[in-house]
What does this fold into?
Amino acid sequence: MYSRLHTINQKLTFLTMTTCVTSFIIAGIALMVFQMINLRDQITFDLTIQAKMLANASVYSLEFQEEKDAQKILNELKEDPTISYAAIYNKKWQLFTSYLSKTNTNHIPPKNIDHGHSFTSNSLQMVQPIILQEELIGKIYIEKDLMGMYKVIRQQILAIVVIMLLSSTLAYFLSKKLQPIISGPILSLTDITTTISKKNDYSLRVDKRNYEGEMGVLIDGFNYMLDQIESRDGDLVKERDKAEKISIELAKHRDQLADLVAALQISEARFQTLAQESPVGIFQADLSGKFIFINPQFKHILGTKSSSSFSDMWISFLHADDRTHVLKAWNTAIKNQVNFKSQFRFCSTTGKDCWVIGQAAVTRDISNQVNGFVGTFTDITGLKDGEEKIRKSLREKEMLLKEVHHRVKNNLQVISSLLRLQSNRITDETYRGLFMESQARVETMALIHEKLYKSNDLGRIDFSEYGNSLIQGLSQSYRIQPGIAVDFKIEIDNINLNIETAIPCGLIINELISNSLKHAFPTASQISDTKPEIYVKLSMGDEGRFHLCIGDNGVGMSEEIDINHLDSLGLRIVQGLTKQLDGKSKFSFNDGFKYDNEFDEIKYTDREWQT
It folds into this structure.
């Protein structure tokens, strides 16, 4: 079409009309698409809020089967004439109550669908779950008539078409009126050029007349060109002889130049292959930091096909949170002419943030002067997403593990409470004491789980804090004979133990401290002048082994007692727990009671679960 237009006036008219009409069409289409998307999003948002409010309002009506209350809630939709149908269903998708507008008389109830929204040809359907205490008890369904929205869109389309037609007509008449201003001087210049080319008469000149501005400069330039051609026409003959001599010299170097060109083409092809196929973004920048080259992968990272946006405005693609430190590092590299390296995010035109590692090295010219930078941008979004998924998974597992420890602690406390209640009903002190011992053992294990779920490190427990809490609880639970005041000496280093090791240690302390409180100081008359004392020491040696020492200065036990054949359940439990720790224990009954145990921390081993 354009090639069939011969005159400048026709081409100017065609270009003007094509530009105007294309601009109007693109602007109109973009406006309508934006308006339709905006209307759909706004209607969806409003209906979602309305559905959530109705779902919250109808929770207890549905839970207690108050159909009248639910109907009153739905009847409030009469205020919105665009709501054609609404209904409340129970969790089995059985209709509980419904609302039907006056204009919608033949509505067919929907089938069971998941919550969310969907558009049909004439309506927007919304399903919202009704939740009570995190349990689904029903769903609410709302259907909104979209004919009003479509009517508004049709009116806007008609208005845009009318405006486009009027604007195109006005553009046509303006282009016809203003064409002579541009085409007149050009046509005069064309006539003179044709005459000179036919007659080879370089003495002709174009009459400038009253032309000013760009046309005046063009005519002056044309006349000056004719002057130069006329003056140099005589010199051309002289230069012809020189050119022949130069051509002979050039012929000698032609082969060498061909070889150099071939080598340059190979080098250029290698560079193009590297730049085009590279999995990382490659760029080149001058000393001011302005990008002068970027490869396709760099464009792909930012979700664009254009190169012009990065020459001066690449900074605008930086994420707002990273912009300050990236610009600081980049400006430092430019100022000091040093290498640049940073990790940051680009705001891709696709709407998704892209994590990259940016690196740049200085480049030098043949005189070894710094003339710019060359560097890469490596997309690490996948790695960042993987890191975030791992962090999220760890947070979820940590919360779950805390909940497990909390529930285990609660269950153990329930058991402890049951044992205490049962012991209160027992009159026999012997049996009552057995229940109290069992209760103390349960509370020892419960305290472990309590400390764990309150700790920042779910895998280990601060045994110093735990041991002090445990011994304090035991001292309050067991009654000492009147007139006896026991001094507790606790020397527990700042040691963190895993749960596999902490529970046996805690139970050993519970059994031995309980035994000392019950039996080491039976009466005040049997105690020497030394103040009654119970001590607990836990330390870690140079080789990483732990040393646990528990004892008292009470009445002690007979040395003839065989520690391996005792009827005491507590000491038998201690022996079993010592074996579980794989420790080396020693009992001493001179001047009271003393227990020594050296052991290593128990390493966790995977369990084999059977289903």
